Amino acid sequence: MLRFEAWRQRVFPSKTERNFRLGVANGILFSLADALIDANLVLALFVRQMGASQAFVGLLPSLKNGGFLLPQLLVAGRIGGMPLKLPLYRRAAIGRSFAFLLMTLVIFGATTLGPSLTLLLLCITYTAYNLTGGSSSLAFQDVVAKAITPRRRGSFFSYRQLFGGLLAFFVAGPIVRTLLAQDGPLTFPANYGILCSISLCFMVLAFYAFGSIDEPALTTPSVRHTLRETLQSAPLLFRTDVDFRRFILSRIWSRVGAISDPFYIIYAREALQISPRFVGIYLALRVITAALSNLYWGRVADQRGSRRLLVLATGLAAAVPAVALMLPYIFATGSEALAWAFSAVFLLIGLSIDGSATASSTYLLEIAPEAERTTYTGIANTALGVFTFVPVFGGLLLGALGNNYGLLFAIGALASVGAWGATLRLREVREVRDDTRQVGLMRA
């Protein structure tokens, strides 16, 4: 009887378990799609090959993160009043897929279009792709908060990143390494276009998986605010909710610390003279490290709390620019030893980014009252979105200082240490909830 029941649950899972699996499948597929066209590795090399400046290289991750985060405050109030959020997510998924398809066509036609027009159209389509994702991100997070219990959210996000990272390692890494090799089967820009095409296929499957979730009804009546009310609530929220204010400040420092993130691969290729074949190796190492780290990160988030995980991940992030600065003094420029040693940079990036992503997602869901969840999330993500353009200033700084990577990495290291210090001031809020935060923002 017990065996039959176990079999029945595997074949016909409960609604809660089915939602969990679909959400994890969405994360796995999207991680794979994102790895194939990574802004800090693949797209950075593509635009550099098209003659783009360092500032444009820094713009790519800014468009990715800023385009995803900035629109959320504009739609937070309207989304908060919607009883079901999945219809919005599905419409946005269609828009994102179309924008990415256009970007793929631009990359295929790069030789015909020419450098200037290609970079302009790439910028427009990539921005549209991320802005559309940002408009539905609040819907995604609200569905997750309703469909996944608090005690399983750490596992939920870590499983998404764990298995997504493993697939990226075994699938995306070899594909990128093969297509971007100097003796690869395709010439430029067809090699990048094929990467985009494969990425789009996995992306569509990811959207379909999450769009198939059975969205639960809210247990607390949703609150709808106008844009004006949402904007007016932001200063009040920062003043009255200490947990929220400290969380945002720690994340802002982290964003500033990411000023050098897009330039590690350019630094490796152009300053350290590392072979392009290591691009695929670095990508594979980063994703497998990030994936396996989630076996530990998810357990930390579920058992010890999101605050503990934020402290660990932010500390690792602070070590990245320090290692990048130190290695050229130990190994000879252009040597095989330096190329392999530089892998440590991407190993640390993988550890810190996935740990921080899991911790940030769960911590924000824990401090936000259910009825005001979209308002909290929208304000937080838009505030952070402003600072995603820091890498653009990093690129401008590099150009002004004659590609002085040392100064740029030093700035990143100092800001990352500041982020770690700010994270230490956070408190674990899972067990100690401030009841005053359950009062609606507009009534305060």
- Given the C-alpha coordinates, what overall shape results? globular
* SSE arrangement, N to C: HHHHHHHHHHHHHHHHHHHH
Major β-sheet annotation = none
**Tally the helices: what do you get?**
20
CATH C-level label = Mainly Alpha
Mean pLDDT: 79
Description:
- The chain has a single domain, classed as Growth Hormone, Chain: A, CATH 1.20.1250.20.
- The chain is mostly helical and 444 residues long.
- 76% of the residues lie in helices and 0% in strands.
What descriptors fit this protein?
single chain; about 450 residues; Growth Hormone, Chain: A; globular
Short description:
This protein has 444 residues and is an all-alpha fold. It is built from 20 helices and no strands. Helix 5 runs parallel beside helix 8.
Helices and strands, with pairings:
Blueprint lengths: L1 H10 L3 H22 L5 H8 L4 H16 L2 H9 L5 H23 L1 H4 L1 H33 L2 H30 L10 H22 L15 H14 L1 H16 L6 H8 L5 H27 L2 H21 L9 H6 L1 H25 L5 H14 L3 H11 L4 H20 L20
Helix pairs in contact: 2-9, 2-10, 3-4, 4-8, 4-18, 4-19, 5-8, 5-11, 5-18, 6-8, 6-10, 8-18, 9-14, 9-17, 12-18, 12-20, 14-15, 14-17, 15-17, 15-20
